[in-house]
């Protein structure tokens, strides 16, 4: 396996892990916030962080940024938002 390919895999894993933890934390903060109107804003920020993370992985791997995979970036905000805010 080429060293550049391994480096891209490692960078992709680091970016996704970091962004997922960050987006999940922001989503959990939305569920705990008592300030009026904070939930939609924080969940929107978490969704944007997830989308940017997927786009960054696509750029790292030299693929097209516009892809249906970008919708996967919204997943942490949707899951934690449902569990913490709706329930």
Judged by helices, strands and strand pairing, the structural class is mainly alpha
Number of strands: 0
Order of helices and strands: HHH
Over all CA atoms, what is the radius of gyration? Answer: 15 Å
Gross geometry: elongated
Mean pLDDT: 89
Roughly how much helix do the residues carry, as a percent range?
over 70%
Organism: Nocardioides pocheonensis
Keywords: Membrane, Transmembrane, Transmembrane helix
Protein name: DUF2537 domain-containing protein
Transmembrane segments: 6-30, 42-60, 66-85
What does this entry look like structurally?
This protein is an all-alpha fold and 87 residues long. It has one domain (3-86). The chain is 75% helix and 0% strand. It is built from 3 helices and no strands. It has helices at residues 3-32, 38-60, 75-86. Helix 1 (3-32) runs antiparallel to helix 2 (38-60), helix 1 packs parallel to helix 3 and helix 2 (38-60) runs antiparallel to helix 3. The model has no long low-confidence stretch (mean pLDDT 89). Keywords: Membrane, Transmembrane, Transmembrane helix.
Keyword list:
single chain, 87 residues, mainly alpha, 3 helices, elongated
List the helices and strands and how they pair.
Layout: H1 3-32, H2 38-60, H3 75-86
Helix pairs in contact: 1-2, 1-3, 2-3
Organism: Nocardioides pocheonensis
Protein name: DUF2537 domain-containing protein
Transmembrane segments: 6-30, 42-60, 66-85
Quickly describe the structure.
With 87 residues, the chain is mainly α. The chain is built from 3 helices and no strands. Helix 1 packs parallel to helix 3 (75-86) and helix 2 runs antiparallel to helix 3.
């Amino acid at each position: 396996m080429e060293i550049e390919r391994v480096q891209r895999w490692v960078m992709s894993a680091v970016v996704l892990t970091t962004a997922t933890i960050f987006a999940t934390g922001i989503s959990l903060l939305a569920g705990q916030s008592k300030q009026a109107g904070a939930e939609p804003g924080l969940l929107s920020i978490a969704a944007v962080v997830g989308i940017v993370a997927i786009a960054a992985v696509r750029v790292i791997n030299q693929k097209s940024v516009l892809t249906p995979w970008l919708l996967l970036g919204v997943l942490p905000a949707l899951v934690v938002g449902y569990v913490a805010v709706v329930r």
